[in-house]
Amino acid sequence: QVQVVESGGGLAQAGDSLRLSCVASGRAFSRSDIGWFRQAPGKEREIVIAINWSGGATYYADSVKGRFTVSRDNAKNTVYLQMNSLKLEDTAVYYCAAALALGGAIWSAPPRRTDEYAYWGQGTQVTVSS
To answer: What is the 3-state secondary structure (H, E, C) of the chain?
Structure first.
């Protein structure tokens, strides 16, 4: 089992940067794919970025390509979401989620759907103002 906790959200101006962290407990973290999702008011939760258990495969939503990057440090049980050039439309609650990737190859693509992730954090608010 994996428990995840997000941190690093807050208020930023358009064009600024923020870094979110997802810290996990449990020895299964190093074998877990991690996804970052976000949900804006009145909208469905959507995938932002995902990284597989080894760090060897990632997925970026078109809306964040070139601005957001993901990395993981399995020794620290932490995944980072670096958000640069923030836009007003990036305002949302950001969630970290984990999916056990038992038997996955180092290059296996991480999941993208919310129902593929079993473990979720409580979310952290990111608000971008002009």
So the answer is: CCEEEEECCEEEECCCCEEEEEEEECHHHHHEEEEEEEECCCCCCEEEEEECCCCCCEEECHHHCCCEEEEEEHHHCEEEEEECCCCHHHCEEEEEEEEECCCCCCCCCCCCCHHHCCEECCCEEEEEEC
